[in-house]
UniProtKB/TrEMBL annotation:
Keywords: Membrane, Transmembrane, Transmembrane helix, Transport. Residues 12-399 form the Major facilitator superfamily (MFS) profile domain. The chain crosses the membrane at residues 12-31, 43-66, 78-95, 101-118, 139-162, 168-185, 216-239, 245-267, 288-316, 336-359, 371-389. PANTHER family: MAJOR FACILITATOR SUPERFAMILY (PTHR23502), POLYAMINE TRANSPORTER 2-RELATED (PTHR23502:SF132). It is a multi-pass membrane protein. This is MFS transporter. It comes from the Bacteria. It comes from Chitinophaga qingshengii. It is found in: Membrane. Its main location: membrane.
């Protein structure tokens, strides 16, 4: 077995961070190509959106189920196999015009990306401890949020210059380069393997799901990121069909959204030790107020710029909320690192992929008011879950205060 060499820890840390945005790139890079894909593949907007939904559900379900596999059989070889499959699936999409085959390959990509993400996220828990582990783990979502900044922006130019298939050329090259680096410098990092036994796995999942702050956290994360997904799935049609602008403008809009999420993630990292539930309630209330103002303003005046002003503020608070709760959850159970990481990420992906698809199917989002209405629904749902978490935690005995590696008080110790 090829173990990670001590002298390669630094470069492998950089490689792990370089791989973290890959799931976001697989979502966002081809967003500006949606209208062109509708025309080229002779299909509907709903079917093109379905290529994203299939990927997200596959990715989410796979993380739910495959985290225990990575805890049992290690990180390295699973990561290599997943990178190979991801690269080949992109080549398959490039070579076909069959929508059913594209949907199938996107589902395969979801499985491959799930394995990549689970194995790379727990790299920091395997290799580092204490404050360094907490800081690196908090950086995960900050680094991940570079994908919504760069991917649609680059995708807009790729679409304009070369067409929609160029996005999947980009993803194939990305996967291949990271595969080669892993082969040269990577190695196994797991220190103690979990027994791959149904009862052991069941008990692990039972522990995680029965922990209220963890399980409800998946719902909060899913509803929170659902706002970003609704924006991503609808902004190409608002910009390119509603305002008759180019895919490059869609890319700039996505750039603004991604920069806002990135900024919110940095703020969450800065305020990591502030009272956990209190800061989430403030962020949620601010989001709701901005979304309501966005709805009212949309009836008076609307432009791409006015939409983006509100989106930037709402997505900044979204990035803050998501980073804060995700960091909390992934460091909650270091003994089940890959399983916990896969469960919280997978569960949230399933929730936001279904929520965003349902909202975009029920609400025809064509302008500022309809977009703000979708935000309001998701924010109100998040408020209800936060209230449920707060109520449950207040009933817990005050004596049971514990602290996880992210510096956050857990279960009954949160904000009592």
């Amino acid at each position: 077995m090829k173990l990670l060499k001590k002298e390669n820890e630094r470069i492998c840390t950089i490689m792990a961070f370089a791989l973290i945005p890959i799931s976001g790139f697989a979502i966002d890079v081809y967003i500006p190509s949606f209208p062109n894909m509708v025309q080229d593949l002779h299909t509907t907007a709903a079917m093109i959106k379905l290529t994203m939904t299939v990927y997200l559900i596959s990715y989410g379900l796979s993380q739910l189920l495959l985290g225990s596999l990575v805890d049992s059989y290690g990180r390295y070889h699973i990561n290599l196999a997943a990178l190979t499959v991801f690269t080949l699936s992109n080549i398959g999409i490039i070579l076909t015009s069959s929508l059913p085959l594209i949907l199938f390959l996107r589902g395969i990509q979801g499985i491959a990306i799930a394995l990549i993400m689970v194995s790379r996220r727990v790299f920091f828990i395997d290799v580092y401890t204490g404050e360094k582990r907490a800081q690196y783990t908090s950086m995960l979502n900050v680094v991940w949020s570079t994908a919504p900044i760069i991917a649609p922006f680059a995708g807009g130019y790729l679409q304009t210059a070369f067409g929609w298939r160029s996005n999947f050329y980009f993803l194939a090259v990305y996967g291949l380069v990271m595969l080669l680096f892993e082969l040269i410098y990577g190695g196994e990092t797991i220190k103690e393997r979990m027994t791959f036994h149904p009862r052991t796995i069941w008990n692990t999942y039972k522990t995680l799901f029965s922990t209220m702050d963890f399980s409800l956290g998946m719902v909060i994360l899913g509803l929170s990121y659902g706002m970003v997904m609704v924006f991503g799935m609808t902004i190409p049609f608002i910009v390119e069909q509603g305002f008759h602008a180019s895919p490059v403008v869609t890319g700039y809009c996505a750039l603004g959204s991604g920069a806002a999420i990135f900024t919110g993630g940095l703020l969450a990292k800065r305020y990591i030790k502030k009272p956990f539930l209190h800061k989430l309630v403030i962020a949620n209330g601010a989001q709701l107020g901005i979304a309501l103002l966005m709805y009212v303003a949309g009836g008076i005046y609307m432009s791409i710029a006015s939409i983006m002003v509100f989106v930037v503020f709402i997505h900044s608070f979204q990035g803050f909320t998501y980073n804060s709760y995700f960091t909390y959850c992934v460091t909650r159970f270091p003994q089940y690192a890959a399983t916990a990481s896969g469960l919280v990420s997978g569960g949230s992906y399933i929730i936001f992929s279904i929520a965003s698809f349902l909202i975009t199917s029920v609400i025809t989002i064509r302008n500022q008011q309809s977009l703000s209405l979708s935000y309001i629904l998701l924010i109100v749902a998040t408020s209800i879950i936060l209230w449920r978490v707060s109520s449950a935690l207040k009933k817990q005995p005050a004596a049971v205060n514990t602290t996880n590696s992210a510096g956050l008080r857990t279960m009954s110790g949160i904000d009592q």
